[in-house]
Structure formats: C-alpha cells, structure tokens
Design goal:
The complex is a heterodimer of chains A (259) and B (141). Chain A is an alpha+beta fold and 259 residues long. Chain A is 19% helix and 31% strand. Chain A starts with a helix and ends with a strand. In chain B, strands 1-2-3-5-4 form a five-stranded mixed barrel. The N terminus and C terminus of chain B are likely disordered. The chains are: A alpha+beta (259), B mainly beta (141). At the A-B interface, helix 3 and strand 12 of A face helix 1 and helix 2 of B.
C-alpha cells in the first residue's frame, strides 16, 4: 500500500508539476526502535558540574572581540560589587549555547528513531531537537532560541551541528555576564561519556560578531538514576506571580510586586 | 534587593495572611549575596515559597535589641534541585520556629542565600549542599 501511495504521488507530480508533492515520512519500522538499543546509554538525569563551570569562567574565557571584552569586563565589575546585570530576569529561554554553559539544573535525553531530544528543567522552554536522520540544515531556517541541530553518531559520540540561532540569544558565562551573539553563530558539539556516569559536551562556538576566534569549551555532567531524581516541571515565570484567593473563593494568581 | 525592604515595611508580621504579596525572585545571579559572610537569624516561618526559579523561605525574624521584628527572604535553589537533595514542599511550614544561617545580601537589605537551617522544636537540621557553588565562597564573584 505504501509503495502504491508513493508511486501515485510520483505519477501525479510527473503529470502536473504545479501540484505540490509533499514528502511523506514513513513511520519508523520496528527495526528503527530496536536499533536504539545499540546506542550508548544516556538515560537517567544529568546534573551539571557547577564548580567546573565556574573554573572554566576563570581559566577558559571566550575569545571576545576587543569591544565585546570591554562590555564583559564592565559586567564582571558590576557583579563583583553586588549589582549584577540581570540577563535572564525576563524568563525568555537561555537558548544555545548558554543552556549548556551555565545551567545549574538537570536535563535528560530521549532517543527516538532519527532524533535525539534534550529536555531541561527549571525553565519549561529548554528543549533541543537534534535530528539524526541524515537531514541537513534548511537553507533559510526560521531563527530560534535553540537553533536548528543536526547530528550523527561517531561510534559512541554524538556530533551535533547547530545554526539558525536568534541574534539576541546570549553567549553567557554566568547569569550576570554575557553578550548577545549578534547573529551568524555556529556551534559544533561532541557529546560522549567520559566515565560510566559522566558526560562531556565539548563545544566549539563561532560567533563572528562578538568572538574574534572560535571558542572551545567543555561542560561536564554527572548522571543520577532513580525516580526520586526525576526532572520536575519548572516554569521560570512562576516566581513572578503569587497564589491568591479572590472574593468568591477562587484560586487565582496575581503578579508579584513590581520592581 | 529593594523589594525585600519594601515588603518588610508593607507586610510586617504576616503569618497566615492570604494573598501574601511576595516580591519577584526572578532568574538572577547570586552575585547579589556575599558568600564570604554568614549571618544567623531566629524567627518564625511566614511562608515556604516552593516555586521556580528559586525556592524562598520567608521568615519573621525575632525582634532583637529593641528593634521590631523584620521579614527576611532567604533563597535556595530550584524545587527540582532541592527535591533531588531530599527536600519537599513540606520541609518547612508557616509557624515553624527556625534558626537559619545565610549569606546576606550585599545591599544590606533583609535577605540572603540559604546556608543551613534548624527546626527549633525538633532539632532537625535542613541542609543544602552548595558544594556545587563552592567557588563562590572564595569571594571571587
């Protein structure tokens, strides 16, 4: 039946080229699901190694352009005096690469045919879809917070290529220090286990508007297994509202006191 | 955190008040706290705000030296991180008598980052391992 449908679509397209012939993605065969068992085990919950994150901030600084470096220096000075810039107060997604660089919260991987999906905690918008079905990037992708990611398995390592990130997304080294990438950013990652329960994500970030050279940095995550460690819902904006009860006894939320 | 000061003046002793108007503890940097300092306060839990992005313990600190009681907001990490460390939304309840150690706000307002707590009636300790943020303690930020 499937063959017939494909043949029919091909014939229709041949007879009248003005008819738009949609790509019909086939449902994955059972083999595609069992093939997933051959992939390395990235199950469980991954929590970031925060002391290493902070060491990286001091020891492996991005290759900022001179003007970018001045802004960064000002932001670090402000943070040191206890008046940090509030880059993520608006609760918009941290996006790529910042989620990987500075998060203190857990994430998990889902493996499905043709895709690796990363879901994060504490900000409901943390979601990356990495297509491993052999597709390339769209020619003119809509720009997004996490970009368009395609990847392939190089033995037990996942190599990911990401483009199409909105120019306003930060390259941040902390919640108080970072710059908007300015557009045309390109991120290549190599993700692999470095131990039974240790994951390394090696990033190479190219951002010509703020970085004078590609910046390489690695982030380390440790695995936890068990229902008690499961990721829970986290809505960043929730802390900006307060639960109240209206005069009719209905549960409502109202904005917290404004700044 | 000027909001905290405004809150303490506006709300005062507010145990059990419906519609507790808490300031926004949005997704900010911990550079606002001085992790080189430790302050201990005793008081009564007004609210245990178990929400993202940061869980906050609101405490009506006991009056000291003739000063009137003050409302303090003590920040922890996200509910997810706390759950993985064994906390629940019932770890603290309004009315609990507690002693809390914190790293104070650099601004001098009544607030800080959680360093430890003891429930005074039961003697139970509540801890959160900030070892993940160990580098902060050297004052480098």
């Amino acid at each position: 039946m499937r063959t017939f449908v494909i043949l029919l679509i091909w014939i229709v397209g041949f007879v009248d080229p003005t008819i738009v012939v949609a790509q019909v993605d086939a449902a994955p065969a059972a083999q595609a699901w069992t093939d997933l068992a051959k992939l390395p085990d990235w199950g469980g919950i991954w929590i970031p190694d925060v002391p290493d994150q902070r060491a990286q901030v001091l020891e492996n600084t991005p290759r900022w352009t001179p003007s970018a470096a001045e802004n960064i220096s000002d932001m670090m000075a402000a943070a040191a005096t206890g008046r940090p810039a509030r880059l993520f107060n608006d609760c918009l997604p941290e996006g790529m690469p910042t989620w990987m660089l500075i998060s203190h919260n857990a994430f998990e991987f889902l493996f499905t045919p043709g895709r690796v999906t990363m879901l994060g905690e504490s900000d409901g918008n943390r979601l990356r879809r990495i297509h491993t079905d052999g597709r390339g990037h769209p020619e003119d992708p809509d720009l997004t917070y996490h970009g368009d990611s395609v990847g392939y398995w190089d033995s037990a390592a996942l190599v990911v290529d990401t483009v199409g990130i909105l120019p306003e997304v930060y390259i941040a080294v902390s919640e108080a220090v970072g710059l908007r990438n300015g557009g045309d950013m390109h991120i290549v990652e190599r993700m692999h286990l470095a131990g039974p329960d240790t994951l390394h994500i090696e990033l190479e970030i190219t951002a010509p508007h703020v970085l004078s050279a590609p910046w390489k940095t690695t982030r380390i995550y440790e695995r936890l297994r068990g229902a008690q460690f499961d990721i829970i819902e986290g809505v960043c904006l929730q802390g900006s509202f307060v639960d109240q009860v209206d005069e009719d006894g209905n549960a409502i939320v109202v904005p917290s006191m404004p700044e | 955190m000027n909001r905290v000061l405004l809150l303490s003046k506006t709300i005062g002793l507010s145990v059990g008040l419906m519609g507790f108007a808490a300031p926004t503890f949005s997704h900010h940097s911990f550079a606002v706290f001085d992790f080189r300092k430790i302050v201990t306060i005793e008081g009564t839990v007004a609210q245990f705000q178990w929400t993202n992005p940061h869980v906050v313990i609101w405490i009506d600190a006991d009056a000291q030296n003739g000063d009137e009681s003050k409302a303090w907001g003590i920040e922890l990490t996200s509910p997810g991180n706390l759950t993985r460390a064994g906390w629940t939304k019932r770890s603290l309840s309004p009315g609990d008598r507690v002693s809390v150690t914190l790293s104070p706000l650099r601004s001098g307002n009544a607030g800080g980052a959680f360093r430890g707590a003891t429930l005074l009636e039961s003697g139970e300790d509540l801890t959160y391992d900030w070892a993940r943020l160990a580098q902060v303690q050297d004052g480098s930020e």
